[in-house]
Structure formats: C-alpha cells, structure tokens
C-alpha cells in the first residue's frame, strides 16, 4: 500500500487533521487489540537466542538492512545466525527455509530473499512455529526476527527498535489514523535498544523530539550507504518500498543522473503493464532503469537483465557499541533468560 498523505501532512487544507480524527476510534481499537495480545500471550521459548528487529510504525524504516548487518556481525563473531520473517507478500505460510534457487518473492516475500543472501533465512506466519522449526533443523545459535515487536508468540532475548529519524512517529496517531502500530511510550518501554536511521553520518537525530534523549537503553545512529556508485548516464529510478523518496534522494546524493522516477506501493507486485510503462520511460529518456534490491527480487526473471539493482548496507556511528550489545546477548546465561 502507499502511505496516505494525512499520515504526514494536512495538505494545507486541514484535511489530514479531519481524517485522523475520524479514524482515531479505529486506532484506539487497534492499539487495544495489540496491548491485549501482548498482555495475554505466553511466549514460546526456544534454545537459540532471539533478537527482534522491529519498529513502531507501518512501512519501511530500514529493518531488513539492519538485520543483514547484524547477521554479518554475528557471523564474524563465530555465531551461526538464522533470520525469521513473516514472509509478507508471499503465498507460503511456512515454517519454511527460503532457498533463492527454488523460491520467488511471490511465494516467500521479497525481504526473506534478501536475507537469504546473508545466511539461513526462514519464513513463518506463526513466529513460534518458525522458531521451533529453526531449532529442530539445528545449526543456528541465534534467530534474528525481522519485524515482530508487537508479536509476543516467540520469546525474545533482545528487542531492537528501528525508527526513521526524519519522519519519526508521524502525527503520533495509531493505525489507520496514522502510521503507529502502538503508542510510542509502551513500545519504547519494551525495547532493549533503538537504532535511529538518518540520511547520513552528518545528520544528527532529534533525540528529544523522538523521545529518546532520556531513554535508559542504548540508542544508535545509523544510515544506509551504497555498496558502489550508481551506473553512469541517465537513469529512470523506480521503487515500491516504504519511502521511495529516500532511494531517489540517495541516488542523487551519490551522483546519479535521474531523468524520471516512478513510485509504487510497498511490496508492489510488478505486472507486465508496469514493465511496459517503465521500459517506455527509459526509452523516452534514453536512460537505464534502476531500482532497489528489494524491488529487484520481485521483478520477473526475464526483466532483471535489463534493470539495475542498487544495493545498500547499514553503517553505524558506533559499531563497537553495537557489537558489545550483541556479545552481551550471546553471553547471557540460561538463568538470565
């Protein structure tokens, strides 16, 4: 879905305020449902440690690149991580280990396919069943749950919240009146660490405005940086992610020559008509098509040869402190769990 404008702005006519007010009762019901589930569910404990990388808002904040980074860091420490995702957008309910040579975004979702490049990746709509499947398969000593801060089914050893430092918590209203999945205060109260995603290393987060200035858990400043420069020449960029403008801005900042952009809803399934439209734009501008890795894995196989993917990775101002947090989680004794 595309994010409604009233989640971010009133459009100069006060329409956003009215829309949020009308939808607020539904938001209260949504928040009550989340809180009740958190309060009444008994989490299932598994032998491998579990770190959840979640957020408080609907839409992309950078959780998947963060999860990829944590998988690499844990591997470098000698651990064997496995990721666990819901498999949003895929038809398979799981539990299922993702194999890129056998599965597609249509069957397992786009994010699990990306995570499978960093190590063992699993999907399961039932997170507890997914955790148990990973434990039964053996090998992994830690599970990184991509999303799931509001899902209590699987017991967590550490919950890391990822927040977009530019858009923050939106207008502070609960879905569908706003992007929040639950009240900020209750969500932060269950967090063991917070990662604030910013446009780059020189952009300082608004710690106070985000409610993080006095938070008594580690708070990290991170950003996404490209693994290489954009292709030379004119580009037509397209994206179906939580905030496509972040991708377009990053391309320009890295020297990309954007002639045109096309925006799609998050997790958009690209059709033949979409590809014809994109090809027409590229022809009209004599340009190369380019998209995110997450979008690229959702493209039909026959379209990937002519469309470039621009991979990014997460970087941190204080990576040593992040590694220290990971070591503390892995070194915790069973009694401490």
Q: Gist?
A:
By secondary structure, the chain is an alpha/beta fold. It has 11 helices and 13 strands.
Essential attributes:
alpha/beta; Rossmann fold; 337 residues
Helical content band: 25-40%
What is the distance, rounded to the nearest whole angstrom, between the alpha carbons of the first and last residues? 38 Å
Strand content: 15-25%
Order of helices and strands: HEHEEHHEHEEHEEEHEHEHHEEH
Spans of 5+ residues with little confidence (pLDDT < 50)?
Answer: none
What is the SS-derived class?
alpha/beta
CATH superfamily of the largest domain, please? P-loop containing nucleotide triphosphate hydrolases
Class of the largest domain in CATH?
Alpha Beta
- The count of domains is 2
Q: Helix count?
A: 11
What is the name of the CATH topology of the largest domain?
Rossmann fold
Write up this protein.
By secondary structure, the protein is of the alpha/beta class. The chain folds into 2 domains: 49-225 and 315-336, 3-Layer(aba) Sandwich (Rossmann fold); 228-310, 3-Layer(aba) Sandwich (Rossmann fold), CATH 3.40.50. The protein has helices spanning 15-40, 63-76, 105-108, 110-115, 127-137, 184-189, 244-253, 272-285, 293-296, 301-304, 319-331, and strands spanning 49-54, 81-85, 96-97, 120-123, 142-146, 158-164, 193-198, 219-226, 234-239, 257-263, 288-291, 307-309, 312-316. Strand 9 (234-239), helix 7 (244-253) and strand 10 (257-263) form a beta-alpha-beta unit. The model has no long low-confidence stretch (mean pLDDT 91).
